[in-house]
């Protein structure tokens, strides 16, 4: 999996925020992905936390050329394979799982696994993975914890998610070992349910501006 980080970084480009999405109604997937891409956030993570998730990924992959769709909350090898088959360009897992690592080894689709503790980080690094999700970021110790990891794990970069919002994203993004953050704040359930695509596009534009 040596090329995994390279692939993830090339999909990400300079995007500072990956929207973490929980899609209940599959009909929302395409307009939501379009709105986020129009606001400057083409790379999106659709979590497998709803029964609509795989079909949502399929539709975005097939219909929204401007989006880079990935799957999140992948907990086992079966979900990895289903998500890859649905058209996911990348896979996100909340943790380090031997079965997910095995699935990633046999796939071209890059994996962003979650790792917080030194042991988890070392386990992921042994797989050749050095770009990691740091989840749940705020609850696990936030920016202070990430700062403490920088010296022993000099080559590791993180995407903190969980409790990251517009008001604290900058503090995370300012850390040298943070490449981007993830969060649900750019597409809150209430706005998605209301089909408020223009508002979501505006939130995405604001979030994409955090890169500057
Ligand atoms: C994730 O899976 O990354 C988180 O659930 C997103 O957390 P948030 O809702 O606090 O942004």
Structure description:
By secondary structure, the chain is α/β, with parallel strands linked by helices. The chain has a single domain (2-198), classed as Aldolase class I (TIM Barrel, Alpha-Beta Barrel). The protein has helices spanning 4-12, 29-38, 53-63, 77-85, 98-105, 118-126, 137-140, 142-150, 169-173, 189-194, 197-208; strands spanning 17-21, 43-47, 68-72, 91-92, 111-112, 131-134, 157-160, 181-183. The strands form three sheets. Strands 3-2-1-8 form a four-stranded parallel sheet. A two-stranded parallel sheet has the order 4-5. Strands 6-7 form a two-stranded parallel ribbon. Helix 3 (53-63) links the parallel strand 2 (43-47) and strand 3 (68-72). Helix 2 (29-38) runs parallel beside helix 11 and helix 4 packs parallel to helix 5. The longest helix has 12 residues, at 197-208. The radius of gyration is 16 Å and the shape is globular. 3-phosphoglyceric acid (3PG) binds at residues 20, 72, 135, 161-164, 182-185.
């Amino acid at each position: 999996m040596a090329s995994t980080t390279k692939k993830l970084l090339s999909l990400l480009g300079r995007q500072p925020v990956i929207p973490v999405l929980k899609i209940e109604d599959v009909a929302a997937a395409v307009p939501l992905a379009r709105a986020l891409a129009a606001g400057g956030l083409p790379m999106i993570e659709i979590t497998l936390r709803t029964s609509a998730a795989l079909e949502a990924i399929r539709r975005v992959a097939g219909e929204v050329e401007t989006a880079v769709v990935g799957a999140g909350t992948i907990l086992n090898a079966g979900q990895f394979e289903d998500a890859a088959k649905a058209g996911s360009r990348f896979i996100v897992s909340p943790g380090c799982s031997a079965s997910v690592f095995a699935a990633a080894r046999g796939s071209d689709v890059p994996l962003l696994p979650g790792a917080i503790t030194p042991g988890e980080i070392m386990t992921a690094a042994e797989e050749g993975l050095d770009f990691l999700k740091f989840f749940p970021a705020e609850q696990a110790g936030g920016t202070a914890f990430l700062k403490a990891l920088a010296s022993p794990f000099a080559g590791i970069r993180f995407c903190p998610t969980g409790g990251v919002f517009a008001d604290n994203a900058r503090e995370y993004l300012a850390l040298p070992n943070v490449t981007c953050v993830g969060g649900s704040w750019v597409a809150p359930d209430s706005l998605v349910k209301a089909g408020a695509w223009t508002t979501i596009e505006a939130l995405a534009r604001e979030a994409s501006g955090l890169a500057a």
